[in-house]
Specification:
With about 110 residues, the protein is an all-beta fold. The chain contains no helices and 11 strands. Strands 2, 4, 5, 6, 9, 10 and 11 form a 7-stranded mixed β-sheet that branches. A 4-stranded antiparallel β-sheet has the order 1-3-8-7, with no helix packed on it. A hairpin with a 4-residue loop joins strand 7 and strand 8. The N and C termini lie far apart (about 35 Å).
Amino acid sequence: VQLVESGGGLVQDGGSLRLSCAASGFSFSTYVMSWYRQAPGKEREMVASINWTGRATNYANSVKGRFSISRDNAKNTVYLQMNALKPEDAAVYYCHCPSRNAWGQGTQVTVSS
């Protein structure tokens, strides 16, 4: 099982980024996928999750209305579109498959004020 995130970087307050997570080694299309983040000195927290069809999603209150999770099962990829970014969104973002207990290596998101 392998999860590889990409798309992080430095963005200004109010900007946008799109994270991608490419999955391999398991039947991606049958599993719930999630995005988590961890800021320095804070616990890792769930940001968004999506069911296997892509029709059911769940978001942390702090990102509702700004972030959008989606997936392309043909490409074994899950995405996180992040809009209206704030300095408090800065963190390492991780892709996670809960049922396989699999984590990616993380991608850094930095938001400058």
